[in-house]
Known about the structure:
Number of helices: 4
Distance between the termini: 32 Å
Number of strands: 15
Order of helices and strands: EEHEEHEEEEEEHEEEEEH
Strand content: 25-35%
Structural class: alpha+beta
Amino acid sequence: MKKRDDKPVVRERPITYDDYxxxxxxxxxxxxxxxxxxxxxxxxxxxxxxxxxxQMILTFGxxxxxxxxxxxxxxxxxxxxxxxxxxxxxxxxxxxxxTMRGIEGIPDxxxxxxxxxxxxxxxxxxxxxxxxYQIPEYWIVDPAHASLEQYMLTDNRYELFNVYDRDETVRSxxxxxxxxxxGQIVDAVAGLPG
Length: 194
C-alpha cells in the first residue's frame, strides 16, 4: 500500500494484483477478494520440511505430466484474488498459465499444510475460495494427526472425498501419479520443532 508522508493512503476500492505486486515491505501477503491478508508468522521448520517432502514425492512420481510448485508462489485466480498455497500442481499441457508473475489460472491441485495459526483460513476461507474458482482438488495436510483430507470439486463445491490416516496410501483418480503415505512424510521430518 502506498504511503504519503508516512501515513497510509485510505483506499476506497479493492486492492488489485498490480497494487499487491508493488508491495515491498518484506512481508508476505495474500490478496483475498481485494483485501490484503498478512501471512504471519513464517512457517515452522517442520511445516517447510513437510512441504518439501510432499513436493519431492509428487515431483518424482508426476514429473512427466505435472509441474509441482511450493510456496511462496502467487496463484493468481483473479485481479483481486491472489493466494500462495503451500503446494500447487499444474498439468504440463497448461504451461501457458505459468508466467513471470506466477500461476495465472486454475491449477489441477492445491494443498495447504495446517499450522496452529492457519486452521480457520485453510479449512474455511480457502476451502470456499478454491471451490469458487473451480480448482478440481484440494488437500489439507494435518501434521499433528499425520493425516490428509482430500476434497474433490462436485457441483461447484468441495466434498470431503477421503481422509487418509498415517498408513493409508494417498491416491487421486484425477492425478493417477500420486502415491504416498502420511507416515512417509512425518517420519522423514521426525524431531523437527513445529
